[in-house]
Specification:
This protein is of the alpha/beta class. Helix content is 30%, strand content 21%. The chain contains eight helices and eleven strands. Strands 5-2-1-9 form a four-stranded parallel sheet, covered by helices on one side. The radius of gyration is 22 Å and the shape is elongated. The two termini are 37 Å apart. The structure holds flavin-adenine dinucleotide (FAD).
């Protein structure tokens, strides 16, 4: 049974839960879901729990940033087709005004799954605690240091991976513009599984295409940990 059908059928029929022994509709009014991370996954979960519960389940979304910058189409910023990364930033206004999600800006620092609480740090630097009935963790991913790197801050200054759209996308763009017409672009591909299998190959193609006319003596070198292309093999 799909989750959607499950929620719809239980809400409609007033199914009782062994643990709570209250009809779902009655419990739902006081149920609180906390979602950590307002990216594609977290925002979608928050929206559809509100929609499918017909507003009966309260949803709090804790996200550290003020807006979400979409990875999708960020390659257009890398190649200059899109003038700025700002056009890929999305606010959380629709989630709050249209769907009634409670948006909290903060960085989650701890979870107590016995007492069902989440601790987060507010932008002002203080700690707050939120209780939940159900918790959804959707914080995306973080990056390990590459061999030879000493600090993650190097990703923001010298070797942008730009797999999280934002400042690094712009940095990569500026590095491409500044490089002389003989230097090469090296792209590494980690061993699968990794997020967005076509990502590195797509980026290699768009940068190579850009270099072809802008810096014809430069090229893209791919260091791929995988034995073969991981997605859309024929296409790439
Ligand atoms: C260049 C590129 C192109 C892509 N193109 C496509 C595409 O065309 N189509 C497609 O479907 N996918 C595409 N993807 C993949 C897609 O971007 C990811 O699969 C998607 O972003 C994953 O969503 P997520 O919600 O899990 O994580 P994210 O989108 O990374 O969101 C995680 C969120 O959690 C927040 N967060 C993290 N830690 C905390 C914390 N402790 N407290 C509070 N908040 C926190 C972050 O600020 C962030 O907003 C692409 C990816 C890249 C890199």
């Amino acid at each position: 049974m799909k989750r959607r059908q499950f929620i719809q059928s239980t809400a409609g029929a007033g199914v009782t839960f062994a643990a709570g022994l209250l009809p779902f509709a009655a419990r739902a009014a006081s149920l609180r879901v906390v979602v950590v991370g307002g990216g594609m996954a977290g925002a979608a979960v928050a929206k559809f729990i509100r929609l499918w519960s017909k507003g009966e389940i309260s949803v709090s979304l804790i996200e550290k940033d003020t807006s979400y910058v979409s990875n999708i189409l960020s390659n257009e910023v890398v190649t200059g087709k899109r003038p700025s990364i700002d056009s890929l930033a999305y606010s959380y206004t629709a989630l709050t005004t249209k769907y009634g999600v409670q948006r909290i800006q903060g960085t989650v620092t701890g979870i107590d799954d016995i007492n069902k609480t989440v601790t987060y740090e507010t932008p002002a630097g203080s700690n707050s605690v939120l209780t939940y009935d159900r918790l959804v963790l959707a914080p995306g991913l973080d990056f390990d240091l590459m061999p030879g790197m000493t600090s993650a801050s190097q990703y923001d200054t010298t070797v942008p991976h730009a797999w999280k759209a934002g400042v690094q996308t712009t940095l990569l763009r500026n590095q491409l513009l500044a490089m002389p017409d003989w230097q090469n672009v090296v792209i590494t591909v980690p061993l699968a599984p990794y997020r967005c299998p076509p990502g590195p190959y797509e980026r290699a193609c768009v940068i190579a295409d850009w270099l072809r006319t802008r810096k014809p003596n430069s090229k893209v070198v791919m260091l791929d940990a995988n034995p073969e292309i991981q997605a859309q093999k024929t296409n790439f």
